[in-house]
Design a protein that fits this description.
alpha/beta; 6-stranded parallel sheet; TIM Barrel; 4-stranded antiparallel sheet; about 280 residues
Length: about 280
């Protein structure tokens, strides 16, 4: 499956990342140690198994530094990689390759880590109808890329921002005066293409939601027996999403209750970086 990222998002993010790393004087180490006309060949290789994500950002890092660099991806984002496997080959001006190395690897390591953790969650629930999805618990200014990585790992995306959809949470309900008033106000405000989801903590709240109607219900921090009962009560009239404290140890039992989605903040806020490295090939 092919996954796409906006070229404009990539260009602006990579440009800012390179500017941050190069600072005011540029890569003084490389300028001091490497002759201006030197060329090099290098590979990006995996140090451990995982799922690759972030190749377009790595490519952009090298090409923005020096358009003459050749970048050949040997895999596609979303592909599984084994320890020692080559992910990409790079060839061209040595100074530019060395100066772009860290930005390229930072993006790839971070996003491949998100994709790899997502894939592990997805594997745990593959025997069910449920899908794992992300949240807005993302690194500031990295949301589009981290959510892209979730898709690369076989997960689904929740809303990208506050303008995507209505998600009425417990604090909204408290201020609005209850489930019914919150839902009625939301329906009166949004257009017909905007979906409405509401969070509930109890089956009694769920009964109020069913009486008022919504597009989706977020079943927050419910045990599997309560989730199973909630799914029965909804009877496919709306999307059922489970959330709250989901771990690799609990995700399967949650999925087996019949929910449609399981949102996991850890996919983006707690993913470990996948160990990738750039190695210069010595002729």
């Amino acid at each position: 499956m092919t996954f796409d990222l906006s070229p404009l998002l990539i260009h602006d993010a990579v440009r800012a990342a390179l500017a941050e790393d190069l600072g005011r004087a540029g890569d003084v180490t490389t300028q001091a140690a490497i002759p201006a006309g030197a060329t090099a060949r290098a590979v990006i290789a995996a140090r451990e198994a995982g799922v690759v994500a972030g190749l377009p950002l790595a490519r952009a890092a090298f090409l923005q530094m020096e358009p003459r660099i050749g970048f050949e991806a040997r895999l596609e984002d979303g592909a599984r990689v084994a320890p020692g496997e080559i992910v990409a080959r790079i060839e061209g001006p040595a100074r530019a390759i060395l100066s772009a190395e860290r930005v390229a690897l930072n993006y790839m390591g971070r996003l491949s880590g998100v994709a790899s953790l997502t894939a592990t969650y997805a594997e745990r629930i593959a025997h069910t109808r449920a899908r794992v999805c992300d949240t807005r618990k993302t690194t500031p200014l990295m949301r589009a890329f981290e959510k892209y990585a979730v898709r690369c790992g076989g997960g689904a995306n929740h809303r990208f921002g506050l303008d995507d959809a209505v998600l009425i949470k417990d604090n909204h309900i408290a201020v609005a005066g209850g489930v019914a008033p919150a839902l009625r106000a939301a329906k009166a405000f949004v257009g017909h293409l905007t979906r409405i989801e509401i969070e509930v903590d109890t089956l009694d709240q769920l009964r109020e939601v069913l009486a008022e109607g919504a597009d989706a219900v977020l079943l927050d921090n419910m045990r599997p027996d309560a989730l199973r009962r909630a799914v029965e009560m909804v009877a496919r009239r709306m999307i059922c999403e489970a959330s709250g404290g989901v771990t690799l140890d609990t995700v399967a039992s949650i999925a087996e209750t019949g929910v449609d989605l399981i949102s996991v903040g850890a996919l983006t806020h707690s993913a470990r970086v996948l160990d990738l490295g750039l190695d210069i090939e010595i002729a």
